[in-house]
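Lecture notes, unit on binding sites. The following record was shown on slide 14. It pairs a sequence with 3-phosphoglyceric acid.
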Amino acid sequence: MKKILVATEKPFAAVAVNGIKEVAEKAGYEVVLLEKYADKAALLAAVADVDAIIIRSDVIDAEVMDAAKQCKIVVRAGAGFDNVDLAAATERGICVMNTPGQNSNAVAELAFGMMVYAYRNMYNGTSGMELKGKKLGIHAYGNVGRNVGRIAKGFGMDIYIYDIFTPQEIVDADGVKRVDSAEELYKMCDVVSLHVPATPETKNSIGKALVGSMPKKALLVNTARKEVINEPELIELMAERTDIKYVTDIAPAALEEFSKFEGRFFATPKKMGAQTAEANINAGIAAAKQIVAFFEEGCERFRVNK
Ligand code: 3PG
């Protein structure tokens, strides 16, 4: 009997775990749970005899893979897979997948929750601003970015995107305006919502030059990854430009320093963009189905390592 480990430091909603079990049990597989684990040692012990692993932002590095002697597949129930060492997985013959699009609406909705929160001065009762009529820059127009665009229409925002990968047909069908560079996007937009993955190219790329070029009362919303922000530069900029606000779903490494910008900085206590029952169900069940299809049919759709 194949064994799937669901290793989630930040647990799925119980209903999603039940859904995962249902899919797995129907295929004759067993599911074991490791939730809210305290340290890596717990993860190393739990992976010892499993054939497949479902994770969220949990880190799967070479050490974990070496401890997971039987493991053939790791599915990141979510979009970003920067928490998995892909090269180490390939070396060990482990297939790595993600579940693109399954949690993107949840993340996009939170981006708007944070935009409204920031524009209404963190709900402190003072007079704030409205999103309607403002220029929204969507930096990277993947699954989350597109959902942000869809919701922004309801708010009556003027929508601009920067993304080199999105086909023009999609841009045209969605009725958003494409700009040719990140520089152009930041320079013209009142609000920028970040949706770039953390890659060697994007890490530390959002700093003083881009954010500093934004118009007065600029708002930067980050529901992507903390690593894409050049934190020292953003701190320096926010000290100089007291009109800039930064809200994020991923606490910065320099949380204490950012927290000094009272009323202009906010970070959720725990990354919670994808933390809805719906997103957990979608991503968790998709992950379970992908694992069953991998073992039963050799299906490698959504594989992200070579
Ligand atoms: C993702 O990459 O899918 C999101 O960042 C959500 O991450 P999480 O599953 O850790 O909440």
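Take-home: The first helix runs from residue 14 to 26.
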